[in-house]
Amino acid sequence: MMSKMGEPTVMIIGLGGLGSVVLELLARQDGLGRIIVGSLEDAPSRALCNLARTGAVAQGYSPAIEFTPLDIDKPVSVVDAVHRCRPDLIFSAATMQTWWLPSLLPDEQRMLIKSARYGMWLPIHLTLTLKLMRTLRDSNFEGFTLTAPYPDVINPILDRLGLAPTCGVGNVGEIEPKVRLLAAQQLGTPLEAVDVSLVAHHAMVSVAYSDAPQNIPPYFLRVRHRGEDVTRMIRADELLLSPYLLPPGPATHFLTAASIVPLIRAFFSDEPSRLHAPVTKAVPAFKNNPMLRMPASARNTPPSTRTPRPKRFS
User: Model confidence over 217-231: pLDDT tens digits?
Assistant: First the structure.
C-alpha cells in the first residue's frame, strides 16, 4: 500500500551484514515512504534502525524507519507483519549462514568448505527463502519481492514450484559498474556515455574481482559508447577479467547494496531504467538461446590462454 504522497513502503527482511547496509542506503534516499525492518532479533535490530535513522538525519534526510518482529520459521508472524505493514516491495536478505563466515575458520576447514563449491550453499540459502515465498503466496501478497541469497540457483528452483520472487539481486549488478568505469576511462568519456550489457552467472563476480581469474563461467558482454558498439575495439572481455581487487568479507556488502538500491527504486519510477539483476528462470545454455542472439561483434569469449568456459551454467 502506497504511503502518503504516493511514496512506496519497502520492507527489509533480515538485518544481517547485507540487510543492515541496504537499510543505511535506503535511509538516505528521497522519494521513499516507510522503511519497515522485519527481523527475528529485537534489540539488535532496533539499535540498527536507530543508527540508520540518526545517521540519515545527520546528513539531512528524514527517513520513516519502523521495526516489526518477524520470524520466517513462523508463518503467522510473517502474515501478520505483511498484513499490518502492507509493503509495496519486500527485500529479503535472510539466510541460515552468511557467505563470508567460512573465511574466519582455520585454513584446513576453510579449504574443505571451499572444495565443496557452490553446492553446499543450496540448502543454507534455499530454506528460509522457500519458507518466505510460500508464506507470501498464502498471504496473497501482491507486491514486488526481491531476494538476495544465491538467486541464480534458488530462484529457478522456486520458479518451478510456482513461488518465484520478482527477481534476485546482486552479483551481475556488481560487475557492470567495474566494466563501465574501466571502459569510460579507456575511452576518455563520461560514465553516462557508456552502456554495458552483461549476462553472467553468479560465480562471475568472484572472477571479475580476482587478481588471477580461473574457471571462467560463460558470459555475454556488450559495451556501447554513445550508441556505438565498441566491445571489440576496447577489448571489453579483458576489462571484465582484469585484476580489480576488493577488500574481503562483509566490506563488499556496500557494493552489493549499492546495486540493490537503484533496482528497488526502479519498481516505483515512471522512467525506464537499464539495470542488471538475476532472473527467476534458468538460462540453460548460451548456444541457440534466443535471449542471446546478438551480432557476432557483441559476443565475447575469454582469451584462449585462460581456462576454457563450460558449455552450460553450473
Answer: 899 999 999 999 999
Rg of the chain in Å (alpha carbons): 20
Q: Write out the three cell numbers for 59.
A: 546528513
Query: What are the start and end residues of each CATH 3.40.50.720 domain in the chain?
Result: 4-168
Name residue, grid cell 524507519.
Answer: 65
CATH class of 4-168: alpha beta
Predicted TM-score (pTM) of this structure: 0.85
Taking a C-beta distance cutoff of 8 angstroms, is the pair 78, 135 a contact?
yes
